[in-house]
Amino acid sequence: MQELVFLQSLQDDPYTTPEVIAEHTGIEYRSISDLIRRNKSELEFFGVLRFEIVKPTNEKGGRPKKIYHLNEQQATTLITFLDNTPQVKTFKVALVAEFFKLRDEKAKWQLQRLSEKPIKRELQDAIKNWKYYAPHMYSNINALLVKSVTGLDVKKLKNKRGNAKTALDLLTVEEQERYEQNERKTIAYIEAGFTYKQIKALLNGAKMFVAIDEK
Fold first, then answer.
1. Which of 2, 8, 81, 22 is nearest to 50 (CA)?
2. Following DSSP, what letter does each residue of 52-86 receive, concatenated?
3. What is the pTM of this model?
4. Distance CA 39, CA 106 (A)
5. Half-sphere exposure of 51 (CA within 13 A, CB side)
6. Which of 30, 151, 164, 181 is most buried per CB count within 10 Å?
7. HSE-up of 195 (CA within 13 Å, CB side)?
8. In sequence order, what are the residues at sequence separation of 6 or more whose Cβ sits closer than 8 angstroms to the Cβ of residue 211?
9. Residues 48, 63: Cα–Cα separation, whole Å
10. Above 50 in pLDDT, residue 10?
């Protein structure tokens, strides 16, 4: 089933597009786009009417297409302008449910970020007092933690999911939870006198690790 609502990252707002609306209501894409333009002022009451310009991907080329990004209020307002056919009514219910689901996930993500901040300060203090402390060690540990929950280094994560102020802004709720768990483990490893190499092996799931005194 085609995705109804999109979320580039959990720091952004979810949105849908005219293509999605057209696909699931049986109304032509051009008609939906015209409806958006005719009701632009009403839709902008609920925020800036955002869009992206998409270049054609076929060999023949063609003109770039403007794809509107409708937030929850804009999308639900727009679909009130459509005739209530059985197909449109079914889509309205599914769209509202999907927006609610992502809004709930975003709220959980925001709470998770707040709960993680004290642990991050504790980790920073542990690194500062670590006998193996070195310049840039905190950024190295953070990159290690990010990779431990996503399988990607920070640069690849941002390339895949979009740029953000910090890599943590790009994590899902589940990844945030595992990140916090691994932060706690890392604090314990540091306080136990483990080296960076040992911590890396443990976070990567190694069953054995070298002697604690190895540098």
1. 8
2. EEE---STT----EEEEEB-HHHHHHHHHTS---H
3. 0.64
4. 28
5. 16
6. 164
7. 10
8. none
9. 24
10. yes
Concatenate the DSSP letters of all residues of the chain into one string. ---SSB-S-TTSPPBB-HHHHHHHHT--HHHHHHHHHHTHHHHGGGS--EEEEE---STT----EEEEEB-HHHHHHHHHTS---HHHHHHHHHHHHHHHHHHHHHHHHHHHHHHHHHHHHHHHHHHHT-TT--TTHHHHHHHHHHHHHHSS-HHHHHHHH---SSGGGG--HHHHHHHHHHHHHHHHHHHTT--HHHHHHHHTT-S----TT--
User: What six digits make up the tokens of 124?
Assistant: 């920073």
Distances in whole angstroms, Cα of residue 149 to Cα of each of 13, 53, 63, 152, 167: 23, 33, 41, 8, 12
How do residues 170-212 score in pLDDT, each as one tens digit? 888 899 999 999 999 999 999 999 999 999 999 987 544 444 4
> Measured on CA atoms in the order 185, 154, 204, 135, is the torsion positive or negative?
negative
- CA 67 to centroid of chain Cα atoms: 20
Nearest Cα neighbor of 140 from 151, 154, 150 is 154
Q: At 115, which amino acid appears?
A: S
Quote the pLDDT of residue 206.
Answer: 57
Tokens of 89: 């009514």
